[in-house]
Amino acid sequence: MQLEEKKKKEIEFLEKVFRAGSSTLSNISPIADKQKKAVERISELGFPNRKIEDWKYYDFSPILDNFLSFDTCKITQIEKESLKDFLFPECEKNLLVTVNGHFSEKLSNFSFSKEDISILNFNDPEQLKSYQGLDDLVEKYFAEGIENESNFFKACNTALLSNAFLLKVKEGVQLKETLQILHISNEHCFNQTRSLIHLGANSKINIIVTYVGLAEIPFVNNAVIETVLEEGSELVLDKIQDDTQKGILLYDLKAKLLKNSRFEYSSLNLKANSSRDKISVDIDEEGAHADINGLYILNGERKAHNVITVNHNVGNSTSSQLFKGILSDKARAEFNGAINVARDANGTDAEQMNRHLVLSDEAHVDSRPQLNILADDVKCAHGSTIGDLEEDEIFYLLSRGIKKDDALAMLTLSFCDEVIQKVKIESARQHIKNMALENLDTQMHKANIVHNLR
Amino acid sequence: MSEQIIDIKELKADIVDGDQILKGLNLKINAGEIHAIMGPNGSGKSTLSKILSGHPAYEITDGAIDFQGKDLVEMEADERANSGLFMAFQYPLEIAGVNNLEFLRMAYNSKQKYLGLEEADPLDFDDLIEEKLSLLNMKSDFLDRNLNEGFSGGEKKKNEILQMLVLNPKLVVLDEIDSGLDVDALRAVAAGINAYKSEGNAVLMITHYQRLLDYVKPDFVHILSGGKIVKSGDSSLALEVEKEGYDLLAA
């Protein structure tokens, strides 16, 4: 793209965000305040470029080439039948669906008691206002720190806010059923999805969020999840990106962990043209634990970016990160993971591991682990490996009569398994395994393996 | 005269791009026989097992190996396995995410398919396995675990023997199967080998020490030194090694 043309497109993009942003102002004032601040922040930041450290390896042209319109995102008719590949039986009773960023009442259903959990749509002010303590919650946790937001696209999501959801699990409520949040894209558009998940003290919920593309057309999912875990609460959050090959996922997750809370997160990027996951975890009170995992399987010219920050703002807290990637053909992956331990955050125990399996000479990995430790009494470990499959492992399987292609597929699945096992739902694990195999080289006799391996 | 299982003639082999290790090894094994190859460290014992099973890091530079009328040298590792050659590894590999039972069934069915026989469905296969497990004094929860993952040294070796029993090969090469085993595990492993052994198959034990041979009695013992078999005899040769050491014998 010519430089001048690129600049023109960036400006056009910004103008459209401003216009769309001012027309979607919420009539709930604390929300509108944040939206206005987001617009200000957007103009301060300007359209991002590769000179910014966090965007060093990102290719913006698919966004600029395709997505200069925010008003075309509309809800389309979808039959539940067409979603069956993306629904997990364990979550049948509690399903929240959006189509191109819009809530679909028809496709959603909930069996949770309203006493236990509130699920509220930001697009329905009356419903939202009925929630006691809304203003306080929005002020504290919705788009927290928007004045200094570093992610341009999260600021866009805030400004353009449409169908965001507030999920509030009441204090002391431990939900046994898993909630699935399914975001569908099937139109050429730049859609915004957003959830604010608030866990009351000592509550617990499992949520699985899936981003699914239903049409082979370009689209952008500009997704934001914010979560706050009050004292003693536990959130298991699994994210599966199952977009079509032309989909682009821009994803921003921010988690705030309070005293003795526990956050288990797994991110599975299985399809899409490119995905960018910005993950920020703030451990703000002692005794909290964050377990952050990711898997990306890339072929063709696909890309995955993971920009992760775990902040131990207080001591006596623990975190672990495990990210694995498999790359073939001309795929590219970026892992940029930082652990920041604040001054006086003694008793922090943090670890990070990033492993890549690179199956082609033309695939490329940039792995940049960073440890920034300002306290004395901490335990931090990190590691990074990039390699091919182990010859001895392949040989072991061959020596038992297993064909080479099958052996390669088994070992590749085996490489993924550590992350896949973190996902709590059996049918989701199976789905991920199937997707993993689909992404592997066609010569790997996938049908045979799927048949033989549970 | 009994059927010939393997005939190794003037075998020379090296590590790919490395030193020559086997320097003209001859060995013939017939059905119904148990052979033991003993030798000091660096004599070429492990190389022999890897060459026989087709490890890609080792290459044959000269000589011939006839395995049941077929040229073993020309066969890929998986083909060798499916044709009835089994090597129990000195260090079995841990493979995360591959269920032990599924793996055994895949290996079993690979061989069935290769031989043009019917593949076993999961239920039939479970029955087949149960019987082998009890022979080795293994609990069935072994099967639910991942292949060798987190297994103790003894469990890994028992798992090798379990695979051997399931695949029921013509020739078994046991590469230091006794290393790192306590007495109970050694007994279980030996029980597995003795149960497997029949008039129609053969065993080649590669070992540094004599102690396995107290439990599995060899018909022939060979001393490997400097890449060649320097002495052959009956089981009394192993006792001699135990007493005199390798230096004396190789001299």
Structural class of chain B: alpha/beta
Q: Sheet with the most strands of chain A?
A: 10 strands, mixed
What do the pLDDT scores of chain A average to?
90
| CATH H level, superfamily name of the largest domain in chain B | P-loop containing nucleotide triphosphate hydrolases
Tell me what the structure shows.
The complex is a heterodimer of chains A (454) and B (251). With 454 residues, chain A is of the alpha/beta class. Chain A folds into 2 domains: 283 residues, no CATH class; 64 residues, no CATH class. In chain A, strands 2-1-5-7-9-11-13-15-17-19 form a 10-stranded mixed sheet, with helices on one face. The C terminus of chain A is likely disordered. Chain B is of the alpha/beta class. Chain B has 2 domains: 162 residues, P-loop containing nucleotide triphosphate hydrolases (Rossmann fold, 3-Layer(aba) Sandwich), CATH 3.40.50; 57 residues, no CATH class. Chain B contains 8 helices and 10 strands. In chain B, helix 5 runs parallel beside helix 6. Chain B is globular, with a radius of gyration of 18 Å. Chains A and B meet through helix 7 and helix 8 of A and helix 2 and helix 3 of B.
